[in-house]
Each structure stands twice: as structure tokens, then as C-alpha cells.
Design brief:
The chain is of the alpha+beta class. The protein is built from 14 helices and 30 strands. The strands form nine sheets. Strands 1, 2, 3, 4, 5, 7 and 8 form a seven-stranded mixed sheet that branches. Strands 17-20-21-14-22-23 form a six-stranded mixed sheet, with helices on both faces. Strands 12-13-11-16 form a four-stranded antiparallel sheet. The structure holds adenosine-5'-diphosphate and magnesium ion. The site of magnesium ion has 3 residues, from helix 5.
Length: 572
């Protein structure tokens, strides 16, 4: 290994030379005085290309970190999340990007947002802690600017190390809060099932956000903190926070009703994102949902491959087969039916639906319409006729926001009304009302709501464009798969671009397990198992710091939106 003097010498010697001369500084350098190692792994080819990839490696004992900070997976993820945020914040103080052409001088780390996720930006590996970040190596035009590079390598990086990675300089109380909040959240999620709950919303949670596009907590002084109706109130004992109280939503069918703009969708959104942990101060750090809960939406235009949606849709015009439904352009109702069937295939036991993003004809059909268009003529068996079958027969719960129709009252176990952002238990009134209305006739329960599918490996290889892999994110919610654009915009539980990046590479990784016999569900389980046990690094070349962990559900959903992949049912 080299030392920092050698790096200094190298950088000075290439001043004013062509950009490619930067390639010569790749390697590992021991900063003897500060006691860390800087690894320069990958060098960009010009100032406008993706910035160069670097790592700082420290010995956690020398830097003072006790091992109880990451004594289990939950604590480690909370710890790493905190360090990544600190690093990102410290970078912010430097002269970002004013050091030449293109991305010259820009230092960045994949910094977490509201969710706390397992990420590859900070890695704890044995006694080492590794920080992965990128630097735009400075140049004017294509000429290397050594002086600017020296400022980065010998002023800023040592300052970053000192400020963010020296235990004695860290706000310990805040660090412990991250670790403990994360550990509590995982603990609660793990215990929801045995408590018979699908979701828990702690009292005093702050649910509304800054805006539809900004997921930070609302800073309005008029935010109404969440308070559970007394009939839903339960307490849970957390390892760090101790006993806390909140609304426990039991298994079964739960409706969230209430007038427009009274906070229904905001509550559901918090429940949806309760599959992930949130940072302290987010307001939703104690809103915890079953890990495989799936938001179900209508998604007009999505492709569907080989899905049996016959429980919901049958006898389409022109004898289109819905036991093995294929289309490159699903309608609102067929896409929503497909989304449910695929969620069940992925093992979800909680469906989350909002009237705002559902197809009306999929959700309800009232008595008057049924008189005009008889059941036999209507291809759709609306969700209302199956919602109880799903729970009674298959143990799959539903939480549904429905302000526009009372038809679901008779099907629901619980009805929560949002009234000026306050949750009220109106189950009894709703049931009384449903006694006098027209009865909802349930559909007969199908033998099964889904059939597992086996992907054909050859059809999947389409991404190998001219022999080279070409699978990558092309926007925050879309990826390129070979020459096909795959749209994941409707996945409300994919929360950041780093998850999309891991999902893209996860699709490629799947080749390892695709053998023409394993079902999609089995393949995805194997991938997630590998990631949890071997780390996100297995997805790509060493040293990538911009992966974030996703759920099995979103990876499967990505497969489900590939238009060209072919499947068969096990019986075929
Ligand atoms: P609904 O789905 O019932 O029509 P939304 O959940 O979309 O209502 O909320 C309407 C508005 O109220 C949003 O701007 C949201 O941010 C705000 N809001 C939601 N919950 C609260 C709350 N607890 N306190 C204050 N404002 C809230
Ligand atoms: Mg709404």
C-alpha cells in the first residue's frame, strides 16, 4: 500500500496533463497521521462522466467505536444510516462543484432520505468501517487541475474523516437515537403478527408531509398529532422506548372513511410506508406495518404476462383468456386485478387500497347497475364481492380508504372515520347502516386466487443487448432492460433511486437462479436471502456505494412489468 505523500506526488506530477492521466492515481493510500486508508477504485474518463468512486476505510477500534453500536442487524443499519447522513451533511459545507468543468470538485455520498434502509454507502466489515463516496476529479476543460485536486484529497477528505468518523466528535445521543429507533421498529414489525395486528400507528405520530413531492414532515403549526380511538388502542413494549400506546389495526377488513380532505389518504400512505423504518423526527418512526403489505393500484397501460386473474375477471369480449392473461396494455380494472393476484403470489397478507388510485368498476358495482347489466354479462367480479373471501379463506387482510361509497360497510370488520384528522371508531354505526341497505352478494370463493409462475430463462436473456448487459435506471422510477423501458412509477413502496438501482441489478442477478423449474416467487426469495446474508455488494462490482435494500415485493413487481418475459404454470 502507498502513503499519502506518494499520492501528493502523483497528483502534482499530472498537473495540466490530459484527463486520462488521472487513471494513474488509482490505488490505496495510507494516511499515516490520520490513520485511515483512502481507496481510489474507479476513475472517471472525463469531467462530465459519472464521478470517480472512492472509499475511506477506518479501523473502528482506533477511531473509538464500541461494537455494541452494531451488535445486530437492526442496530448496524441504524448506525450506518446515521454515519451516511453525517457524511452527507459535512460534504455540504464544501465548495461544491466550483472547481472546473463538468462535475469537477463535486463530492457526494448516497444519502438517506426519510427511510432507514440497509445501504452500501457505509459498510461495517469485521473491524473496518468503510465509507463509499464519489468525487468529480477536477479539471479545466480536459486539463487536470492538480491544485483543486490537492484541496479535495488533503484538506477536505481529512476533515470529513475527522468530523464524521471520529467517535469523540459524534453526537452520541443522536447516534443512539438512530440505532434504537431502528431496532424498536424492526422489533415491533416482527411481533405484529403474534399480536394479531396488521399495522400499528403510535399516538403522537405526525403523518402529513411537506407536499406530495416532498416526503419530509409537514412544518405547518396546524398538524394534528395522531391519537388512537380508545377502542383500537393497544400498548406495545419496545426494547428501547419501553411501553408505548397507539392504534392497532387488527387483521381482517378495515375501512378508512371520512369526508374529503380529512386525512384518509395521509393515514394510508403512512401505513404503506410502515413496511420501512423511518428516521427519528420523521413523525412516522412508530408507524409499523407487516413487512409484505402491498399497495394495490389501478395501473392502466402496464404489461401483464401469464397471470391467472380469472377470480376477478372472466368472459372478456372476444373470448380473451383470463386464466392466463397476457397484454401489453392492461385496462384500469385488469391491471388492478393483476396487481392483487401478483401481490398474493409474492406472499402478501395485507392489501392496501385507496379509492383515489383505484378503478371504480373494479371496486364496486351497485344494485342499480346490477339491474341494468346483469352479473352474467359483466366480466368483472368487483373487489367488494371477494374482499371477505380473501380474508376468511386465505388470511389476507385489507385496509381500504373509501369515502365515496358505503357499500363496503357490510363487508368490513372495522371502520375508522377520519374527522378533521382525528381517527374515530364508527364500526357500530356503519354496521347498523348496512343492515338497511341492499345486501352485497359475495362471489363464491375460487379454488385459489393465484397460480405460481415459472419464468423461462431464455426469454429473460433479452437484456443482453449485443452481448453486453444493459440493465440500468433511466430515471427515478424507470429502468432500461435491454431495449425495453420498464416503468415502475406506480410502485408506491419503492422509495428511492438507490432501491431502483439495486432492483435493476437484482434482475440481472436473478439469472443465477432461473433454471426453468423454479417459480418466480422462489427465485426472488433466494435473491433476497443472498442480499440479507452476503450484503448488497453481490449485485455489482466491488465498491459501489449507491445500493439500497428493496423488498421482495418490489423486485417481483419489476419482473412483472417486463413485457417480453415468458412464463409457464407448473402444470404446463
Ligand atoms: P383525504 O384523503 O381524506 O381527502 P388527505 O389525506 O389527502 O385527505 O389530506 C388532505 C390534506 O390534509 C393534505 O394536505 C394533508 O397533508 C393534510 N393533513 C393530513 N393529515 C393531517 C394532520 N394530521 N394534520 C394536519 N393536516 C393534515
Ligand atoms: Mg384521499
Amino acid at each position: 500500500m502507498h502513503n499519502e505523500d506518494q499520492l501528493r506526488h502523483l497528483i502534482t506530477s499530472i498537473d495540466g496533463k490530459g484527463y486520462l492521466s488521472y487513471k494513474g492515481i488509482a490505488g490505496q493510500y495510507h494516511y499515516r497521521q490520520e490513520g485511515f486508508v483512502l481507496a481510489i477504485d474507479h476513475i472517471q474518463s472525463d469531467p462530465f462522466a459519472s464521478p470517480s468512486r472512492l472509499r475511506i476505510i477506518i479501523d473502528r477500534k482506533k477511531f473509538g467505536f464500541p461494537s455494541n453500536l452494531y451488535s445486530n442487524r437492526s442496530r448496524r443499519i441504524g448506525f450506518c444510516d446515521f454515519l451516511a447522513r453525517r457524511f452527507a451533511k459535512a460534504i455540504f459545507h464544501f465548495t461544491q462543484g466550483h472547481r472546473g468543468s463538468g462535475k469537477s470538485g463535486r463530492i457526494s455520498i448516497d444519502s438517506p432520505q426519510q427511510e432507514i434502509l440497509d445501504r452500501s454507502a457505509i459498510i461495517v466489515d469485521g473491524d473496518n468501517i468503510e465509507v463509499r463516496f464519489t468525487v468529480g476529479l477536477p479539471a479545466y476543460g480536459r486539463r487536470i487541475a492538480s491544485q483543486e485536486a490537492m484541496a479535495i484529497f488533503f484538506d477536505e477528505i481529512p476533515i470529513l474523516v475527522e468530523e464524521t468518523l471520529l467517535y469523540e466528535n459524534i453526537d452520541l445521543a443522536l447516534l443512539m437515537e438512530y440505532i434504537e429507533v431502528n431496532e424498536d421498529a424492526d422489533y415491533l414489525r416482527k411481533h405484529l403478527k403474534e399480536m394479531g395486528l396488521v399495522s400499528f400507528v403510535a399516538n403522537q405520530s405526525m403523518l402529513p408531509r411537506m407536499s406530495g413531492k416532498d416526503d419530509r414532515p409537514s412544518d405547518s403549526e396546524h398538524v394534528v398529532p395522531f391519537v388512537s380511538p380508545s377502542s383500537f388502542e393497544v400498548s406495545v413494549d419496545l426494547p428501547n422506548a419501553g411501553k408505548i400506546w397507539g392504534m392497532g389495526i387488527p387483521e381482517g377488513v378495515t375501512l378508512i372513511v371520512g369526508g374529503g380532505f380529512h386525512g384518509k389518504s395521509t393515514l394510508l400512505r403512512a401505513i404503506e410506508l410502515g413496511v420501512f423504518n423511518h428516521r427519528p423526527g420523521d413523525g412516522r418512526e412508530r408507524v409499523i406495518t407487516r413487512p409484505d403489505a402491498m399497495k394495490i393500484k389501478a395501473e392502466e397501460g402496464r404489461p401483464v404476462q401469464h397471470v391467472d386473474i380469472s377470480a376477478f375477471i372472466h368472459h372478456l369480449p372476444q373470448r380473451i383468456n383470463t386464466e392466463c392473461f397476457n397484454t401489453l396494455n392492461a385496462s384500469g380494472s385488469t391491471s388492478q386485478a393483476t396487481n392483487i393476484v401478483e401481490a398474493l403470489e409474492s406472499g402478501s397478507d395485507l392489501l392496501l387500497l385507496d379509492e383515489d388510485s383505484s378503478a371504480t368498476n373494479f371496486m364496486i358495482r351497485d344494485a342499480q347497475m346490477e339491474r341494468l347489466v346483469p352479473r352474467e354479462k359483466e366480466p368483472i367480479t368487483p373487489f367488494i364481492q371477494h374482499v371477505r373471501n380473501l380474508y376468511d379463506g386465505y388470511g389476507c387482510s385489507t385496509i381500504l380508504v373509501m369515502g365515496g361509497s358505503g357499500d363496503y360497510f357490510s363487508q368490513a370488520d372495522h371502520v375508522i372515520c377520519m374527522d378533521e384528522y382525528m381517527a374515530v371508531d364508527v364500526s357500530i354505526q356503519a354496521h347498523d347502516i348496512s343492515q338497511v341497505g341492499p345486501a352485497i352478494v359475495r362471489a363464491s370463493a375460487p379454488k385459489t386466487f393465484f397460480t405460481p409462475r415459472i419464468p423461462a430463462p431464455l426469454s429473460f436473456e433479452g437484456f443482453k443487448h449485443k452481448g453486453s448487459r444493459k440493465v440500468k435506471p433511466i430515471s427515478r422510477t424507470k429502468l432500461l432492460f435491454g431495449s425495453e423501458e420498464v416503468d415502475l412509477t406506480s410502485l408506491d413502496q419503492m422509495v428511492c433511486e438507490s432501491q431502483l438501482r439495486s432492483i435493476s441489478d437484482g434482475l440481472v442477478y436473478a439469472m443465477k437462479y432461473m433454471d426453468g423449474n423454479r417459480t418466480l416467487n422462489e427465485i426472488v426469495d433466494l435473491i433476497v436471502h443472498d442480499l440479507e446474508h452476503q450484503g448488497l455488494n453481490i449485485l455489482g462490482p466491488q465498491g459501489i456505494g449507491s445500493y439500497a435494500m428493496f423488498r421482495k415485493q418490489e423486485l417481483m413487481a419489476a419482473f412483472n412489468r417486463l413485457g417480453r418475459i415468458r412464463y409457464r404454470f407448473p402444470s404446463e
